[in-house]
């Protein structure tokens, strides 16, 4: 039995490897996953949530360049390396976009950046405020590859860090839905009778409520926040898993290997977990891939409505909400870039799900 199972698994893997779009989509998912984990390594703005604002350079186009003066605060912030790597740096320094500067009498005179050819305010600062008077390393020309958002934040950094929510909500939501769905579907399918009728009634009632409306209700009950959204989305997606598991177990429990397990005196828990569930993993993997895509879309919709991840946390849905008005103001890329990222990730998960379905179809 195990040899046959291994041969079927290897056959499914071979079929999946021959599917170009499935392999290509899986590579995209892996790349986005690595980007989301190491976002602060790749992001130009390494401050927490990439929330370094410069209102004087707001809504600048991709490729915008400006001189940036960093004034050290003199406050030392001790932060573990792993914390800055995964959660960003606690930045207490002041960054000022400038147009020009000059040095006279141990004083740095600079003009703040102003757009549309307007002369910026002229200010000065003593060179003694810089360590050892070396000010040149605190003035750099910074390039904003994706431009800046309406608050003057680096848009590329916000996009990279915003991938975390969209990517990890899939894992958390699918994990929660699998746990609840497996338990409810297994009990309903294996035991049947009144327990099956009760569980199916709960499933049908939950199924009849619009998903987005149910998520909004759960989010409002749990509060607005990062983990609340993850839990809310997971609590609404278990019904599909439960229905699939129930149907698979109803057909599988009448097969010979389950009858043989009962004859040997195995307990119901072992029969379900050791014999039935491993043989219905195919449909579960496919529906989990689809649930990944659905969770990303639901989170994006919640963030767009303002009840998802809260500012200043970066989220693709919230970025679309902040900038959708710019579509008619001549800067549509501010809304199109996060929209394209959502589309790319959702499409990748859907194509992987289709490829897995075809690979695990024994009839083809």
From TrEMBL:
<feature type="transmembrane region" description="Helical">
    <location>
        <begin position="276"/>
        <end position="298"/>
    </location>
</feature>
<feature type="transmembrane region" description="Helical">
    <location>
        <begin position="333"/>
        <end position="356"/>
    </location>
</feature>
<dbReference type="GO" id="GO:0055085">
    <property type="term" value="P:transmembrane transport"/>
</dbReference>
<feature type="transmembrane region" description="Helical">
    <location>
        <begin position="198"/>
        <end position="222"/>
    </location>
</feature>
<feature type="transmembrane region" description="Helical">
    <location>
        <begin position="167"/>
        <end position="192"/>
    </location>
</feature>
<protein>
    <submittedName>
        <fullName>Peptide transporter</fullName>
    </submittedName>
</protein>
<keyword id="KW-1003">Cell membrane</keyword>
<dbReference type="InterPro" id="IPR000515">
    <property type="entry name" value="MetI-like"/>
</dbReference>
<dbReference type="InterPro" id="IPR035906">
    <property type="entry name" value="MetI-like_sf"/>
</dbReference>
<feature type="transmembrane region" description="Helical">
    <location>
        <begin position="20"/>
        <end position="43"/>
    </location>
</feature>
<comment type="similarity">
    <text>Belongs to the binding-protein-dependent transport system permease family.</text>
</comment>
<dbReference type="Pfam" id="PF00528">
    <property type="entry name" value="BPD_transp_1"/>
</dbReference>
<keyword id="KW-0813">Transport</keyword>
<keyword id="KW-0472">Membrane</keyword>
<dbReference type="InterPro" id="IPR050366">
    <property type="entry name" value="BP-dependent_transpt_permease"/>
</dbReference>
<dbReference type="GO" id="GO:0005886">
    <property type="term" value="C:plasma membrane"/>
</dbReference>
<keyword id="KW-0812">Transmembrane</keyword>
<feature type="domain" description="ABC transmembrane type-1">
    <location>
        <begin position="163"/>
        <end position="353"/>
    </location>
</feature>
<keyword id="KW-1133">Transmembrane helix</keyword>
